[in-house]
């Protein structure tokens, strides 16, 4: 009997898992290595003091007092770990918490072994996907609704960077109505998406995490030499990306970032009046007016912070496979890339249900009818046998009628063919309803199966990709983060379903 508090499942059974990542985790390192960085920390370039001071000041504003650990990091005395995420409303989906837990787990393990570590969390404040940031999917447990979505929309199309934008009052009002809670400080009037996200993460993760605002001016200053190199090697980078993307495609993979219709890859954006526009060609710009794309953000991160380990989700790992030639071209050290841990959450009674019925991992991400039908093999098999016999006998009678009637009236052929189609359809529908009836015969079991699918695969999407983590924290408080850190297993080829 398995542990009803935790279920470990191979990552290959996680729906929609990136195929490149599965092969990479299995040992295929043609496009991305998995070994540790070989260069010693003492030999690395030290971060500029102005960046250290700016990080200390910005984290203090969010309630994090990380002065001493940043000073040690600035002196090159700690291992550097980093992960990142978009500044989603109310913390975003569950995988955000899995990233944080993965970072903290690795940091604590290093320090328990006598190696000081600094864990950075990069906040992608420069993104302009307002619709994605200003929405939240909340798990429901009533009726046929798996998820309740609260969202806000812009009245006009905009490419404004979301980090500095104020959180809309309409979005906050929806959120507070759902939770029937007093208005927290991290949702005070006029607060930006950046500060709201940062203050909530600070409350959950504490001073073990250093938050990084992608729009921090001192960060751009520290990255200015890299931006200049990108401008200088623009065409060479485009050729390298096309070649590497072709290599990935020839190996059966889909490159994580596709070229635009003109065949060029978006490398940088220009910032003007708070909005981002694509830079089609390199030109001399103040670093404060330059914003990175999905392809160059890892380069800026690795150039400035020189992390020993980067922990990312499947898409972020795949970015590194596509980017590898650019790191070498721009003389940017490549960190050890690791896959963040994957955690799903379900009540213990549902984990017991999985164990009691010996449900296979692939069946969890199914429908309640299909899931329970597989638990009734004899009845379902008999229904299918009888429906098959019914079809054969009906077709035999139709054939006999055709033999008698068609010689007398050839125009009946079309009507007979239509009748055959109708009969087969109704027999199949009858069998389908009978199978569902068998599946539903035990209402308690059906309700549990429905709850299981709605919990782990709401609206046909894996829970950690879509469902918010805030409701869990609202209910369980600090125990949630403790449990996540205890159970998360970064850089392993499995994911877990845990109870709280």
Descriptive overview:
- The structure is a single chain.
- The longest helix has 29 residues, at 377-405.
- This protein is α/β, with parallel strands linked by helices and 500 residues long.
- It has a five-stranded parallel β-sheet with strand order 6-3-2-10-11.
- Helix 4 (94-112) crosses helix 21 (478-487) and helix 16 (377-405) packs antiparallel against helix 17 (412-439).
- The protein has helices at 19-25, 49-61, 67-74, 94-112, 130-133, 169-179, 193-205, 217-222, 224-232, 234-250, 297-305, 314-329, 348-356, 361-364, 368-373, 377-405, 412-439, 443-456, 463-466, 470-476, 478-487; strands at residues 6-10, 79-86, 117-124, 135-139, 147-151, 209-213, 268-272, 275-278, 290-292, 309-312, 336-339, 343-345, 494-498.
- The protein is 49% helix and 13% strand.
